[in-house]
Amino acid sequence: MKFDLVSMEDGTGGIVSSLDGGEFFSEKMGNMGIVPGAAIKKITGHFMRGPVIVKVKDTEIAIGYGMSKKIIVEVQ
User: Fold this and answer.
1) Could you list the residue range(s) of the whole structural domain that residue 40 is in?
2) Which of 26, 44, 58, 74 is a plausible cystine mate for 17, CB 3.0–4.6 Å?
3) Ranges of residues in the chain whose predicted pLDDT is under 70
């Protein structure tokens, strides 16, 4: 099943399926290792549209709510 990062449950992981943003967004995510095919795990999300904490490789990254809605993940 595919979900955006915001909709995923905390502690679940999967493979990035697509990035629903423009060229700048895709480049910014790519610089952080978030590209289609990359393994990603949602650590936690904040109540009321706060940032989402994810783990990519060995790094934890905080991503804003709006950007998190644009990252589509195939949940395993």
Assistant:
1) 2-75
2) 74
3) none
